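**User:** Everyone, produce a chain:

**Assistant:**
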Amino acid sequence: MKGSTVTSAAEQTLSLTEICTLVAGCIKGTGPDAVVVTPDTELLLTGILDSLTVMKIVAELERSLGIDLPPTFIAAKNFRTPQTLHAAVVDTQHAAVVDTQHAAVVDTQHAAVVDTRHAAVTAAEPPR
């Protein structure tokens, strides 16, 4: 989690089923001790997740999505169930794309203002 830097993979997302599989893969337990993870599995209330597992899930999400999730992503409300986790991922990706698009618009507007001012200054200069 280095920040909210978005790469070209920002438009890529994981399905709810893929989130369930990712969570199940991060939870310890195999064989008869394996936990079945469905979209409505209560992850926090049942104690399935601990802080280390949450960090494993975040690292795996970042790797799978090609983005850095912001520190604010790690909130209990996002890890209640795989369904709430999926919604948080989609919301975070959407916000990152909007931020990136906004920054591009601002950069374009700034460049236009600089070009206009430069043209005005150049036009006002006396000929040499």
